[in-house]
Amino acid sequence: MDKVRIAIIGAGLSGLYAAYRLERMGFQDYVVLEARDIPGGRIASFNAYSGSESLSSGPDRFDLGPTWFWPDYQSQLDELVDALKLSRFKQHEAGDMVIERSAAEAPMRVRGYLNTPASMRLVGGMGALVDALQLELDPARILTGQAVRRLRTSIGHVELDVEDSAAKSATWSAEHVLLALPPRLAERTITFEPPLPKQLAMQWRETSTWMAPHAKYVAVYDKPFWREDNLSGEGRSARGPLGEIHDASMPEGSAALFGFLGVPVQVRRNLSDDVLRAHCRAQLARMFGARAAAPKADYIKDWACDPYTAVDLDLSPGASHHAAPPPRAASGPWQHFLTGIASEWSPQFPGYVAGAVEAAELGVRTLAARLASHARS
Fold first, then answer.
1. pLDDT per residue over 109-124, tens digit each?
2. Between these two residues, 280 and 155, which has the higher pLDDT value?
3. How far apart, in Å, are the Cα atoms of 238 and each of 93, 261, 266?
4. What domains appear along the chain, each with residue ranges and CATH number?
5. Three-state DSSP class for residue 182
6. Long-range pairs for 144-149 at CB < 8 Å and ≥24 separation?
């Protein structure tokens, strides 16, 4: 059995940031266990050169998960971006937007609008944030392909039963567990021995996982030709399949449009990606001109098909940013062993990128204070 002081479950932004903060507080006896083959969690990228999801960085990497942040009121995330020396830019919004009201009406142009405060993006996409945090950490402490199946309390520690991608099992022992995956996903996919308190388990189960029911489509072009026609790249459609469209172009890189699929999960499951992409290309051509029908690369990321994001309860429409549930048990055997730190546990920004940073910071501070108190006693 491998022993470690702190086990972090999940190498998404909250898990990586928690490790980053622990390092800076002097706590280096930790491990990050990630079920996926690569870190990042719901921060995922499409690389136009490879035509697939990719870890490789560069100006032709486009977000498949979260895209924007708002430094005017997300100061903690803004400070992290500055500390990691990442480059940012404003979301392109200049020009008219295009609206499709129905299949019976031609698309129409309307005056666009500028968001206030400005929506900001990172050069290289949100994946640049994941890359930068990993560079600050010991790669030997980030273990991918390690799905945690069971947590059980013992005297003074927690045992974590882990299964790798080859179905080989192992067990870790930790003094404390930071749960850097969504509360609903944790409650549905991890066996807790003894069980979580009933009220807490219900609260976690009822908290929607952000992005879980959604799918994004990205189309990449050599240049943002729609801007030549004074179009912003913004679109709204009641016809679909994309309900909401934005300019996803990268500075000094390729141009792109992305949209959220408005097709229900149950319908998407009966359609191939090739068919969905063909419908998306046809829609972009209707709204932005014939050149939009021929991207040099395009991709669909359906988060509802990701077993490390979505469970059955996430697949109904209407998921939104819910109020954060309690991150830990108020009493009982789990009280001092387990803390939730994923974005959904953020008091201010549940479900957002800034929420992952806030929730992880709160969890790490609470844990550090407890460990320091034990050291003094």
1. 999 888 788 899 999 9
2. 280
3. 21, 11, 18
4. 1-43+126-209+317-377 (3.50.50.60), 50-124+213-308 (3.90.660.10)
5. coil
6. 144/11, 144/34, 144/36, 144/37, 144/38, 144/39, 145/34, 145/35, 145/36, 145/37, 146/33, 146/34, 146/35, 146/170, 147/35, 147/308, 148/9, 148/33, 148/35, 148/190, 149/189, 149/190, 149/191
Neighbours of 13 (CB within 10 A): 31
- Asked whether the predicted pLDDT for residue 289 surpasses 90, the reply is yes
What letters, b where the CB count within 10 A reaches 16 and e where it falls short, cover 73-98? ebeebbebbeebebeeeebbbebbbb
pLDDT averaged over the chain?
93
Whole-number pLDDT of residue 376: 60
Nearest to 14 by CA among 89, 80, 91: 80
- 258-288 in b/e form (b: 16+ CB < 10 A) is bbebbbebeebeeeeeeebbebbbebbebbb
Residue 321 has a pLDDT of 54
- Residue with structure tokens 């998960």? 65
Looking at the DSSP assignment, which residues form a beta bridge with residue 176? 6
Residues 6+ apart with CB under 8 A from 336: 176, 370
Checking DSSP bridges between strand 242-247 and strand 108-110, what pairing results, if any?
unpaired
